[in-house]
Amino acid sequence: MASSSVQHLIHGEEEKKTQGRKRPRSQQTHVPASPEEPAAKRRKIFTVALTHRMSIRNVFCPRLLCLVGEFLCRRCRLIKGLSPNVPPLWVHKVDMALTVARAQQESFICSGAVVFLYMLCRDTVSAEVASVEELCAVLLTCPYVSCSYIGPEVGYPARHFIREVNRQAFWKRTLNITTRMSQKMLQINISPSVFTQVISDLKNRTDH
Hints:
By secondary structure, the chain is mostly helical. It has 9 helices and no strands. This is Cyclin-dependent kinase 5 activator 1-like.
C-alpha cells in the first residue's frame, strides 16, 4: 500500500471525524514521518497533501459521491431508469459492511477517496454496460482497488466487494485496473495539478 498525499488527506479527514473539532494550526502544518524518511521528502509529501486538501476544501464528500452517481448515469445510457442515487448507495453499503465486520476502524468514504474512485470509474466503467447487475459488479471493483491502494487498513476482505458468482471475473477485473491504472494512481498521489484536474472534471461533469 503506497504512502501518498491522498493517504495523508484521508487520514486528516478521519482525524477530524474522530476529534469532532478543528485541529490546532500547529498540527495542520506538521506531518509525522518515520525516522528514516528524508526531511526533503517529508516536506514534499506534506506540500502535496496540503494542496490536495485545499483543492477539495469547499466540496463536501456526499456531493462528490452524488456527482459520481450522475457520471455513471451519463456513461451507462443503456441502463434505463438508473437513478444517480443508486451507485453511491452500493458504495455506502460496502463501507457499512466493512465497519460492521470490523474490517476497518473508520469509513473509507471521504472526499479524497471519492476523487480517486471517480478517476478509476471513469477509465473502467464502459458505456457498453447494459444492466444494473453488471454496473454494480464493475463499480464495486473500483473501491476495492481504491481501498487497497490508499486505504488506511493493511487489507480489506474482498467478499464485501464481490457481486458475481464467478469470483474470477472480479479478480481479473481487479488485476486489469491495477495494471492499466498504475501510472495514473501514482500521478494523482504525487501531483497537485493532476488531483485538481480530476476533481475539476468531476465537478464540471467533463467526462472523457
